[in-house]
Amino acid sequence: MDLDRSRPPSAVPSLKRSSERGARSAIVAFVSTVAFFGAFAVVVVNSEAWPAFRNQFFNGDVFVDAWPIVVSGFWLDIQMFVVAEIAILAFALLLAAIRALRGPAFFPLRMLVIAFIDLIRGIPIILLILLLGFGLPALRLTGVPNSPLFWGVVALIISYSAYTAEVYRSGIESVHPSQVMSARSIGLTQTQALRHVVIPQAVRNVVPALLNGLVSLQKDVALVYILGVREAVREAQIITARSFNYTPYVITAVLFLLISVPVARVADWYTERDRERRAGQS
Amino acid sequence: MSTKLELERVTKSYGDVVVLDEVDLAVADHDVVCLIGSSGSGKSTLLKCVDLLLPIDSGRVVLDGDMISGPDVDADLVRQRLGIVFQSFNLFPHMSVAENITLGPRKVLGVDPAEARDRALGLLGRFGLADKADDYPDRLSGGQQQRVAIVRALAGGPELMLLDEVTSALDPELVAEVLGVIRELKDEGMTMLIATHEMGFARDIADTVCFLDQGRILEQGPPERIFGEPIEQRTREFLERIISAGRL
Predict the structure, then answer these.
(1) DSSP string of A184-225, one letter each residue
(2) Is there a single domain that holds both residue A258 and residue A191?
(3) Longest dimension (CA), chain A
(4) Are strands B208-213 and B32-36 parallel, antiparallel or unpaired?
(5) B72-126 residue pLDDT tens
(6) Cβ atoms of B223 and B32 closer than 8 Å
């Protein structure tokens, strides 16, 4: 690339050359990829340990037995994920908005939010799940659900909201103060300026970071398995304990990948597009 | 003619730096008052203090007989009566031109959205921007953005317009279109307080010119006198610098 730049710009011939070069390097990349992984596969499959390995992780009979059970558990993971994500996006925004309010009247609220965020971010998420998921149902409170599933999801929401609120906050701080001044000058109150002018721009600025959190949560919902909630990991664990075979875990891993890889790709695509849009603006 | 805006001994400082030093100023109804002076003389701060975007340390600001400075004033209500336009446009980039203009009327005055849009389109049409209503600000030239910002400030029906160096961020060929809009406002009788570096424009449009120096109004009077026979030494020096820079 550097060499190209130092050459005089004789556009047409060099373009042609570079497209020929591009085609050739694509062929080389393809051939070398096939050769490399082909050789790797041959070595692995012919190794002494392969039959035992295949039986342990890719056992066909166990696969057939475990698949419907793990999939139904995974459906619960997806439901927890969707409910928690929606609650997190809303609750975290509320926390960040409160933190962004100025003026002495809001001081106690602001302090409360900052203390909450510091506290929650300082506790391992698994501990929070254990505390709420086992602790609160044990109180047998009336009027609130007593299921570990409910409180496990609440623990996820609380923990992720603390992090996500900080993401929103960085977005709010990235909006130039002149926007607030401008909004106040047409008569908007502080909260109206936040709602109509600051937050829409702030959210747009942090969408890539929010998508990143989404990918992370999609996997972390599995942590509630520790409460005995029969989601995919728990179901896989039960079958594995019975069959001494790890194929159900592989099934679970594949199911998570089916969701998380596309989401990660979309997040990357969006981030790239957003970067180009900004570059085009300035 | 009654007084629209009156400042009495208004003082404002940032730490030890006194930005406004006991400023007295009166703007009569339908008059245009231009503030001139070098950068840092306090012009911009004065406008922001009038719009209550910055708190003053002492003194009083009176708008149409109502005291608007001090702790008991509802600043949001006061700002509805004033329109301010900034040097850097400050349009909302996530909203179309029409949404920028109707935000205030819709959210603050509770105007019906369709009606607010009709009014916005009317204003845009008057200033040659009718076809830009649904564009986003980043699609507009600087001059167009600034004209939209003026329309946005007008949309709330202000009693007084505050213009803070509205042409300073513009390419030279775009300045005229913005100044044209301000002339139109004057012809319609809008009361305006204008901080500007455009001396020729100030001489044309102002009823009164105030020369600010180190936070004080050093001298004020009709433009012919301030630009023709300035009394104060510092005013003369300032004008000479402007003339030698070819700006007057």
Answers:
(1) HHTT--HHHHIIIIIHHHHHHHHHHHHHHHHHHHHHHGGGGG
(2) yes
(3) 80
(4) parallel
(5) 899 999 999 999 999 999 999 999 999 999 999 999 999 999 999 999 999 999 9
(6) no
pTM of full prediction above 0.90 = no
Express each pLDDT in A103-146 by its tens digit: 888 999 999 999 999 999 999 999 999 999 999 888 888 888 88
- Let me know whether A83 and A30 are in one domain: no
- Best probe of the A interface among B54, B85, B90, by most A CBs < 10 A, is B90
Separation CA B120–CA B229 (nearest Å) = 43
Which positions in chain B have a beta carbon within 8 angstroms of at least one beta carbon in chain A?
48, 51, 53, 75-77, 79-80, 82-84, 86, 88, 90-94, 103-104, 107-109, 138, 152-153, 155-156
Q: Where are the domains of chain B?
A: 3-93+161-244
Measured between its terminal Cα atoms, the distance across chain A in Å is 25
List the structure tokens of A20.
């020929």
CB contact under 8 A, B94 and A179: no
First-last CA distance in chain B: 31
- Give CA–CA dist B167/B175, Å, rounded: 6
Task: Give B83's contacts in chain A (Cβ within 8 Å).
Answer: 185-186
Q: Which residues contact A220 (CB under 8 A, 6 or more apart)?
A: A125, A156, A160
CATH of residue A190's domain is 1.10.3720.10
Within 8 A by CB and 6+ apart from A36, the residues are: none
* Contact in structure between A140 and A146 (CB atoms under 8 Å): yes
User: B1 CB contacts (<8 Å, ≥6 apart)?
Assistant: B28, B29, B30, B31
Domain membership of residue A53 (yes or no) is: no
The model's pLDDT over B62-79, given as tens digits with 9 standing for 90+, comes to 999 999 998 889 999 999
Question: Between chains, do A188 and B108 touch, taking CB under 8 Å as contact?
Answer: yes
Q: A214 and A122 share a domain?
A: yes
Residue A241: both structure tokens together: 């304990």
Residue with tokens 């003619």: B1
Q: Which domain holds residue A231?
A: 61-281
For B3-93+161-244, CATH gives: 3.40.50.300
